[in-house]
């Protein structure tokens, strides 16, 4: 059974990533990838605004554990008013945001072809995965307009579904493709109007072991099928994605990288590479 406490490593990074004192907003901070990302940023000396949706208990735990390095804020990010209120609270309590990590998202559990998909499901997925990112980026840009500075950074979390598509999940694939391509390639040109060295990049994870993928990864037949498309024949841990987020967030490591799509998927390329007998599930996790 997965929970949010798996493999929360202490930072083993020896170099200064230049994240000390940075204010970082992580959305979906109590989810699998979000939680590890929050911990990594705090280990690097950043102050984290940890957004959560329903998981109040985990948010309270984080607030208690990191008290002076964190502010937890709840909001449904598909709701314009709630996003506006969240950013107003951040302005009042923290001041400016340096780094925005748009990580919150949903992946509807059932496979539905386009012929089967209800308009309701389509709209809900776009609202949570896409509208929320529009609203957060817009609010961040409003802040940048009034607080012109040298650097600012947005990291979006897309998916390999944006790149290869995902039969049964057109809603998810389309929402992530919009972020990965439309948002990244447009906002990298807009952010520099307010932050000369501002950067926008997207990370596209493949399969990651988190609560979102828990049910799908419990299906060993399905996992084997997925592993057949991945040269490294393993599933990512949340930490793999969190460390890539930190790397792109760091001006020291990635100061000249903007408008890029970083796929973190063990080399996945969307076609079958191995026969089922070449897959060893014990070596996969
Ligand atoms: P998760 O389900 O553990 O976390 C998702 C987070 O999004 C949760 O904290 C949840 O509360 C939040 N969220 C959902 N609806 C929301 C709403 N309406 N308003 C605000 N927040 C909301 O999943 P995860 O695997 O950690 O996913 C993080 C990101 O990574 C997502 O964008 C997901 O699409 C992406 N991703 C995950 C995988 C994977 O295999 N797990 C693969 C590719 C991409």
From TrEMBL:
Pfam families: adh_short_C2. It comes from the Archaea. The keyword Oxidoreductase applies. Keywords: Oxidoreductase. One of its GO terms (molecular function) is oxidoreductase activity. InterPro entries: NAD(P)-bd_dom_sf, SDR_fam. Its EC number is 1.1.1.377. It is an enzyme of class 1 (oxidoreductase). Belongs to the short-chain dehydrogenases/reductases (SDR) family. This is L-rhamnose 1-dehydrogenase (NADP(+)). It comes from Candidatus Lokiarchaeum ossiferum.
